[in-house]
Structure formats: C-alpha cells, structure tokens
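User: Thanks for the earlier help. One more: Response regulator transcription factor. Can you show the sequence and predicted structure together?

Assistant: Of course, both are below.
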Amino acid sequence: MPDQALPGPSLRVLVADDNPVVRAGLTALLDAHPDIAVVATARDGAEALDRAALLTPDVVLLDVRMPGTDGLTALPGLCAIAPVMMLTYSSEPEVVAEALRKGASGYLVHGEFTAAELIASVREMRRGRPTVPDSLGGSYQPLSFSSHLQSAVAQSSRARPLPVGGLHRHSAHQSEFGLSAREVEVMDLIAAGMNNRQIAATCFITEKTVKNHINRIFAKLHSSSRSEAIAHWLGTAHGGWSR
C-alpha cells in the first residue's frame, strides 16, 4: 500500500509508554512522515492525561501496562480529548474487551504489525475510522469495534490467544532467518529494549529458557551480541524499523 500522506496540518500525536526505547522508536517513526508530528510523550497514564489536556493532540497511542496510572485507568479521560489507539504487548481478550468498552478507537499488539500498518492506522483515526490494519497479502481491511470485541470474546478460552484484529506475523520474517515463532517473539522483544527478565515475564517462560532462545537466535542471525542481532533484525525483518 503506498504511503499516502493526508493534506492539511500535521496530525499531532501523543505517545504514552513506560519503555523509553519504545517511546523513542515510535517518535522517530512517526516524525519521519511530514504529515505527522509527535507533540509529546508520557511515561504513564497520569502524565499522558496532563499532557493531553495541555496540548489536545489529534491521536493518542497508549500502552496498557504502565507503573502508577496504567493505560486502562487513564483511557476514559484521554478518550474525552482525542481518539486513542492502544499500542501494547497485552493481547489478553479481557484486556482488549475492557479497552474497547472504555472507548479505545483501536488496539494493536506489538510484534503483530508493520511500521506501514501503524502509520496507516494512525491516519485512519484522523478520518474518524476506528480501524486497524490486517496484514493479509499487503491488504488493509477495516475492523469495527464489534469485530474486535467478537474476536476477543471468541478467543477467551484459548490459553495463548491470537492477536486481536486478525493481525498475523509475516511468515517471510521467520523464513528469512529460520526463526521459530517463539524466537521471532523473543527477537521482537529484544529489539524493543527488553532485558531477559522482562522477556521471561512477557512470554511466561523462565530466564534460562530466554537465554536458550537468545543463543539460538544469535546463531541464526550470525550475531555475537544483542546490538548486532538488532541491527540485522531491524534492517530486514520490519522494513527498517521495529517497535
């Protein structure tokens, strides 16, 4: 899908995430587009509310789990100011359902969308369309609130639910390096700046298992360090950028 910038003033975005690597990455990605400007970042929900009230952004990108005031707690107040896109690692059906019930205009799970899909989704929010991209053969298909909610409810009995919105990791990213689905997940978290303990908590595995995955990832990416592995990953797996 071509990169189609919207005419008129820049789309003003507030990014709220407690991970400084994620904030910096999103800011760099969004600011690279002339029709989009990140006007503020926030480390938690309370800071996001303060800055949104002061700056009245056009769109808010909001993490779910943050220390202090979390995303779900801040969500109703932020929705009164601007459309909110949840941008998070949390794919639990009950979390998705609560976010949508509280007014979120969309829900994207880190590692399950490309940079182009994120940009397209942010622009769709300016048009008043509560949509998320669905990566199926490069096409984008809008999904309504009810579609998200039905997807979340349908997945409620799964031990490890699929990402909401039908988003799928491109199999080419796995075959490029021969990584398993779990190794792709771990590599995405490494690229997001997480340490081994954080990765273990996110994936519900032990730190020893994380280390084993990392050793295999390094071998497949022909890398000897985290930074070298990330350089290989960002250059090929996500079109030059990863969360």
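User: Great, one quick takeaway?

Assistant: Residues 190 and 226 are 7 Å apart (CA to CA).
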